[in-house]
Amino acid sequence: MPSFPFIESTMTHSSRRSFLRDSMAMLCAALGGALLPVKAHAMGDEDHLQIAWLTPDASKPGTRTTALRRVLQEVEKRTSVKVDATSHIIAIGEEMFDYPMLFLSGSGDFDPWSDEQIDQLRLWIKGGGFLVVDSHEGLADGPFLRAARRELARVYIDEKSSEVPGNHVLYKSFYIIKTPRGRIEASEPLEAYFEQDRLSVVFSPLDLLGAWARDGFGRWEYDMASGVESEREYAIRMGVNLVMYALCVNYKDDQVHIPFILKRRTWKVE
Amino acid sequence: MIPEGYNSGDLLWLGDWGPAWIAVLVLIGVVVIGVSAYDLRGLKTGRRITLVGLRALVYVCAVVMLLEPALDLKNISRVKNHVAVMVDTSESMNLKMDEQGTTRHQRVQQELPELVPFIEAHQDDHVFHFFSYGQEREGFAQSSREQLEALATSGGKHSNLGGALEAIDAHFVEEELGGVILYSDGIDSGAIASRTRRGEKLDSSSQALVSSLGVPINTVAAASQDGLRDLAITRVMRDDFAFVHNKVSVDVEIQAIGIAEQPISVTLMRGEEELQTKQIQLTKNEMLYKVRFEFVPRQIGQEIYNVQLPVLENEALTTNNEHLFLLRVIRDKIRALQVVGRPSWDERFMRRLLKRDPNIDLISFFILRTNESLSNASRDELSLIPFPTQELFDKELGSFDLVIFQNFNFGPYSMRQYLPRIEEFVKEGGGFVMIGGDLSFASGGYARTAIEKTLPVKLPGGRGKLIDTKNFRPELTQAGLRHPITQLAFDPATNTKIWASLPEQRGTNIVGKALPGATVLATHPDLRAGGEPMPVITIGTHGEGRVMAMTTDSTWRWGFESLGDGGTPREYQLFWHNAMRWLIKDPELKLVKLELAQDTTHPGDPIEISVRVANSDYSPAQNRTGELLITHTPHDKDETASAIEPIPLKTNSAGIAQVSFTPAQRGVYELVARVKDEQDESLEDRQLVLVVPDLREYQQIIPRDDLLEAIATHTGGAFSNLQSSSSAREPVLLEPRTVKVNRRKVIQLWDSALTFLLIVVLLALEWTLRRRWGRL
Fold it and tell me: Are B348 and A44 within 8 A, CB to CB?
């Protein structure tokens, strides 16, 4: 199995400088929360786009906890979608049915889920849920993705995951994307489970959340694997596309869009 | 030798001996003769044969006595069987067959007296009955030769030869039929002719039918195709209904006989509009021609089409030069336009529902980005397309059945000028639903626009609150308990329970009171509008179209969130499917439904009509009165349309009024069932009925003498053609099989002294010869 050049970035918090920085960050975050303009209530925040983080193992608090909030803010800035950027961290259970889109991310192996949890997850997926499994490890066959595949295989007993083709609507749901990128660039097509004509589970070894996570000062928490900071934009675009795909599914495959998209793709090639 | 006074004698055996006993007697005889022959082996051959022969004779005589032979003398006479003379009096027999104007019917009338000598010659064995067939759809009418000869015209409609033969068979079921003599031109609008094409053998079903009578069917062809000149539409093959915007094919079969080679135009008319014209080239060798018309109906409803051929000089018949038919154009798929102001879960689940419905053809337009959105990519890096407002709301709007505004505000897209067009679209019969959200209703800026006029609720126009963010569960009104949109269970109590268990809605748009005539199906539990609970689900009509206002944007939770509580997406799916069906006026959801047994009929044939009436909650409307209005538009363009006396309607306990109407003339009849609803508003449904002459008999006017000959040949009858004197053959009839016994006498042959004397003499002779030839 191919491996990615960068596994997971780490940060040290031991120095005084970092202590001061973290303290300032907490202060700013607190002030920022108080001073930011209050979002106008539309039909209630609950009715804005909410995406939750599904923890594979409730006993292990994850990293990159700011990532979803950051990417949702990007979605709201770049698109017409109104979001509720509050962090929602949930475990498999009834609560999932408040969130049609979930991110399952982490690193390392995790304990198998109970049969009851598998049944719940199957019901959620069949009912219309969209799950993005994102590994922090940067390995296509790392322990985390292996564990996630193992559990999802219990959901899809008689089905196998398959590659997401390069012309899939996921890559044109908002931005036209030629190569999926997270903090790491994909060397192989993404893998996914399909539910009739839609993606239901996408496996990402790209560490998307790593590319999106910022600290309280707004600084990126993890460096891009390539070291090219400008490539982070493509990881954010991938995030926007995932969210727009979750909301609009195959809308961009409607016949009315095809001439426009083809024209732009052709133009890009030439 | 039969004694005088008897004309039949049969030998009877009165002895009650079974076949087994007779076999035993024969066996004993063989043994006796064998033993004798062995015993007499010392004698000369001649003497031996003589003695064995005498003994065998004695044995045979004894056995014959045991079998008790008798002579059965009878005086008998034969009973006459019946012969059916059937004369075709269908409409095709009125066709002229020569320049003098002699009709086929007249030719048969001239021929009937020629049958008299044959009848007289066979009257000892047969009783001749005369029947006509062709007046009724099935069977025959009993007649007489004199009556048939006196008929001025054939007077019938269409012939059903198979039906008539079966009826004759049934008529003589108690009596013996000796044969059938059939006078016809062979044109049969029943099954036999349709199954047996010209020049082919009788098919197996027809063979079985004609053979089932068990008698020869003698056929006399009244005419042949010589001298006939006609151009006819013999068949139009098409479906009874077509889908709007989908191609329709109509195949026309044309028959030309006795017409010189020339090009002929075949025209398809839709009402008064000439739709298409096709050319065919008539040739000497071809009699049948096929033309295919293909077109795309653009409107839902009933349309009258007419296939026309030119009328040529001296045609035997001109009424078969056109063929009218009624095409019911129905919706193939619901064409729905979903316009969404911003992607959301509500949009996502709605689109999924609509996309999965095979009956819905969905066109979606989502506003993915607004002018306020940050743009850090070139246009070519985005898969966005312009919002084609003019195409959608001006050019193509009429092609949709339903428009869905889902959390969509028109303001940023310069579309104010299209809002009146959307109102027009609804007035003309389109469906429109506005689904809530912060870009909908008053918060979408629709107050005091053409859309507000279209909606079934008033919109708050001031600076007040336009959105309420509190969670709530809609509460059904009385109307909502039974209305098909909100009826998630048939029983109102169960329905209420289901609604109470659905996940909460996350906020609502604030709307005003429902407009007069609108129906509120569900209300907010806390908010009030004009002193009444605020409408949440409201429906109404606007012109010919239907509208719905749904003030929340979280119905998707009924289909997804409920799964977590052990529920199913059924309620969400059912609610929206019902709403779509109601909005596009699914015929199943009409409050007044006019139903006809058939939409094409013939003058004089009654039409059975049912009018189903429902209350606004779709319960049967009992004892509701109304009227059936009828307008007749004659086929002749010079005549004007006229109204016919309305027929009163009154519904029964099932909400159905049944009436009958008999159109007298050809043309188009428009039936309108008009009934008042609970609010004294008029509800109506309309249907067209096409009344055309019954031309089945004239679709094929070329005499089918080949069919008549095939029937005669198959049943052992004789075939004659009145147009060819050389082909005349005498009918073949079966001899009567039934006899009547006038006198009978049985003479026992064995019970006489002569028989005993013969045996004694034979025994004495055998004894004498045996002694003389030296045997004891």
Answer: no
User: Which residues 6+ apart lie within 8 Å of B304 measured at CB?
Assistant: B270, B271, B324, B325, B326, B327, B668, B688, B690
Give me the residue from B370, B471, B563 closest to A97, CB to CB.
B563
Q: What is the DSSP string of A204-225?
A: E-S-HHHHH-B-TTS-BSS--T
Region of A249 (left: φ > 0; alpha: ψ -120 to 50; beta: rest) is left
Q: A25 pLDDT band (50/70/90 cuts)?
A: very low
Q: Which residues of A touch B348 (CB under 8 A)?
A: 100, 128, 246-249
Q: Nearest-CA distance from B187 to chain A in Å?
A: 55
- H-type alpha helices, B357-456: 389-390, 419-427, 450-454
Mutation target vs A (from B536, B563, B571; most A CBs, 10 A cutoff): B563
For residue A159, the distance in angstroms to the closest alpha carbon of chain B comes to: 22
Q: Which pair of structure tokens corresponds to residue B485? A: 């949109």
Is A249 in CB contact (< 8 Å) with chain B?
yes
Residue A91 near chain B (CB below 8 Å) = no
- Residue A255: the pLDDT is 65
Q: Give the pairing of strands A191-195 and A198-204.
A: antiparallel
Compute, in degrees rounded to 10, the torsion defined by CA atoms A185, A189, A192, A194: 140
Alpha helices, DSSP H only, in B511-595? 556-559, 561-564, 570-583
ipTM: 0.82
* Percent of chain A residues topping a pLDDT of 70: 75
Q: Is the dihedral of CA B740, B744, B749, B751 positive or negative?
A: positive
- B255 closest CA partner among B280, B224, B237, B276: B280
pLDDT band at A60 (very low <50, low <70, confident <90, very high): low
Mean pLDDT of A10-26: 36
The whole-number pLDDT of residue A39 equals 36
Element (H, E) at B30: helix B19-39
Tokens of B690: 């096409």
Between residues B699 and A130, the one the model is more confident about: A130
| pLDDT the model gives residue B42 | 84
A154/A158 Cα distance (integer angstroms) = 9
Which amino acid is located at B328 in the chain?
R
Three-state secondary structure call for residue B269: strand
Please say whether the dihedral angle defined by the alpha carbons of residues B400, B402, B406 and B412, taken in this order, is positive or negative: positive
Which is more confident, A43 or B377? B377
pLDDT in tens, A190-245: 999 998 889 999 999 999 999 999 988 889 999 998 888 889 999 999 999 999 99
Burial (0-12, 13-18, 19+ Cβ within 10 Å), A78: buried
Give SS3 for B305.
strand
Inter-chain touch B348–A261, beta carbons under 8 Å: no
Q: What is the dihedral of CA B292, B295, B300, B306, to 10 degrees?
A: -50
Cβ atoms of A83 and A117 closer than 8 Å = no
- Contact between residue B288 and residue B230 where contact means Cβ atoms under 8 Å apart: no
The dihedral formed by the CA atoms of B239, B241, B246 and B252, expressed in degrees to the nearest 10: 30
Q: Give all strands (DSSP E) within A55-197, no chain letters.
A: 88-90, 101-106, 130-135, 162-163, 191-195
Whether B342 sits inside 8 A of A251 (CB atoms) is no
Q: What is the pLDDT of residues A28-41, one digit of tens each?
A: 333 333 333 333 34
CB B154 within 8 A of CB B190: no
Strand extents, DSSP E, B458-517: 467-472, 475-476, 505-509
Which portions of chain B are predicted below pLDDT 70?
Answer: 1, 99, 135-139, 152-156, 617, 699
What is the pLDDT at residue B66?
85
* Beta carbons of A47 and B377 less than 8 Å apart: no
Residue A27 has pLDDT above 50, yes or no: no
